[in-house]
Amino acid sequence: MRTIFLGVRRPFILSLFTLFLALGLSAQETAKTFPVRTWTSVNGNTVDGAFVREENGKIFIKRPDGSTISTSREKLSPLDLTWIDTTTNAKPATKALSFTKATLLETTKMEQYKLVRRVIINTYAQLTNNDRNDKMLAFLERDAQPMFGWKFISSECYSTPSGKKGKLKTIKFLAQAPVPLREAVQMARDKFSIAMTDPVTIKEISEEGDTYWELQNPPPYLARVLLLVDPETKDKDIKRFDLSFPPPEKP
Predict the structure, then answer these.
(1) Is 11 helix (H, G, I), strand (E, B) or coil?
(2) For the chain, what are the domain ranges?
(3) What is the per-residue pLDDT across 106-137, written as a single tens digit (0 to 9) for each?
(4) Mean pLDDT of 199-218
(5) Average per-residue pLDDT in the chain?
(6) What is the 3-state secondary structure (H, E, C) of 44-102?
(7) Helix (H, G, I), strand (E, B), or coil: what is residue 7?
């Protein structure tokens, strides 16, 4: 009877030991704390707090008073995202950068910025008929270089029920020479008259083998603003500005 008792008890003790060990590791992991630091949003607001966790697209921060707030990656500065990914060994975040509005002195030194003429892109977004060659969009494309300073401008339109060119779908502006990224962001804001929060946040994306920088939070009349990276330059300059527009509302 003694031998049988030992044979049953041994696995039972090992199971308990394994369970306590697992619980201990879990408690250690839960108890892991992070230091209080200053967090900065993309619009410049700051808050002090300690990182708690990232879950379901939300980042939780515990403030010194004990309350917990949540935010998202899109609202945090690139430096904060780098801290999270480095400290917590999280999956690397999409590369993001922020640019404040350039001063007048800075824009006077931007060569491509000075070459191109301002276009109020919202005016073109409101057009519902682009089928004829004597319309605004046709003039913009025809006079791309002599009047507006772009090497080339091309567009695509949504089709009307009758099969004609209706509302603007995409419009692409090819620069005369590669544009430094900081200058390109300023051109997107000023030369297309796009009202955006300051600073402007951009994220690096890849589509169909090309690398783009996408402007975040464009106004409602724009679906996307993409800056195509010139693959031939080492400094990641921009060669084209691609603007996309939402489809027309159904009657």
Answers:
(1) helix
(2) 36-93, 99-244
(3) 999 999 999 999 999 999 999 999 988 888 99
(4) 91
(5) 84
(6) CCEEEEEEEEEECCEEEEECCCCCEEEECHHHECHHHHHHHHHHCCCCCCCCEEEECCC
(7) helix
Of the pLDDT bands very low, low, confident and very high (cuts 50, 70, 90), residue 236 is confident
At 88, the pLDDT band (50, 70, 90 cuts) reads confident
**Dihedrals phi, psi of 18, to nearest 5 degrees:** -60, -40
Q: 199 preceded by cis ω (within 30°)?
A: yes
Cα 200 to Cα 185: distance, rounded to the nearest angstrom: 8
Locate 188 and state its tokens.
């997107």
208 CB-near residues (< 8 Å, 6+ apart): none
Give mean pLDDT, residues 14-22: 42
CA–CA dist 155, 148 (Å, integer) = 15
CATH tag, 36-93: 2.30.30.700
